[in-house]
């Protein structure tokens, strides 16, 4: 018999799915704070390491998230001005949002 998924399992699934669905190479992403965000950051790091993602810049919302992203090799900045935000699913706005400059 299968065991029920834990709350952390569900958060990992949501964080990974948000990255898989919305983060594309060459984008600037906002990284939020919290346990679900931590899973999303892990997924971005995995995809960068594997080469599936390239040229990602991240804007973290906390020192903790910044440190996690840096450890995973994610380029982090805190001073960026971009033109508009692409957000289509309110359930992930809390921990990850995508910014795409018009020049890309």
Automatic annotation (TrEMBL):
SUPFAM superfamilies documented for this protein: NagB/RpiA/CoA transferase-like
Catalytic activity: aldehydo-D-ribose 5-phosphate = D-ribulose 5-phosphate
Keywords: Membrane, Transmembrane, Transmembrane helix
Protein's UniProt name: Ribose-5-phosphate isomerase
Transmembrane segments: 81-99
Pathway annotation from the record: Carbohydrate degradation
A GO MF term: ribose-5-phosphate isomerase activity
Gene3D superfamilies to which the protein is assigned, alphabetical: 3.40.50.1360
């Amino acid at each position: 018999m299968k065991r029920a998924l834990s709350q952390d399992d569900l958060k990992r699934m949501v964080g990974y799915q948000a990255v898989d669905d919305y983060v594309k190479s060459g984008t600037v992403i906002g990284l939020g704070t919290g346990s679900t965000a931590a899973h999303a950051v892990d997924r971005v790091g995995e995809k960068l390491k594997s080469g599936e993602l390239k040229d990602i810049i991240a804007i973290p919302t906390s020192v903790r998230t910044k440190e996690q992203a840096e450890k995973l090799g994610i380029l982090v900045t805190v001073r960026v001005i971009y033109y508009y935000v692409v957000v289509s699913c309110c359930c992930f706005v809390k921990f990850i949002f995508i910014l795409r400059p018009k020049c890309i």
